[in-house]
Model the fold of this input.
Amino acid sequence: MDERPPPPPEGQLIAGALARTGLSIRRAATLAGMSYGRWRQITNGYQNVSPGSYARVRAPAETLARMARVVGVEPGELTAAGRPDAAAELAAPSRHQDPGSRDHTVPGLTADEKVIVEAFLRTLRERREQQEAMRSRHAPGTPAVAV
Done:
């Protein structure tokens, strides 16, 4: 394909939601557990194959759901953008959380802040790293976080 394809509806949705969060693309990508370049490919809807040659990109449902979670997109919005598969992933309980673990709730956080904390914790590979990150978050006068 010699012409850049237009951004897909789900890419436009994610890009618009990202702009409203105030996060940078690099930060959002990190929170979603992906590279800056991959985030851009998915929101733009293409990747450069060679100079002047482009290939369409369609994100796997799970990847798009992670991106949506970071920027606060709701399942219904993904469905309206033509990605009911990603909406179902977003609505499903997180596969990254152990079935017996407690959720990562901190009293007083906004819904957006909770999404960011959850996304950050998913970037940590081991439960031990998650626990250490949450312990370092706790300081006198701030609420403890259950992991």
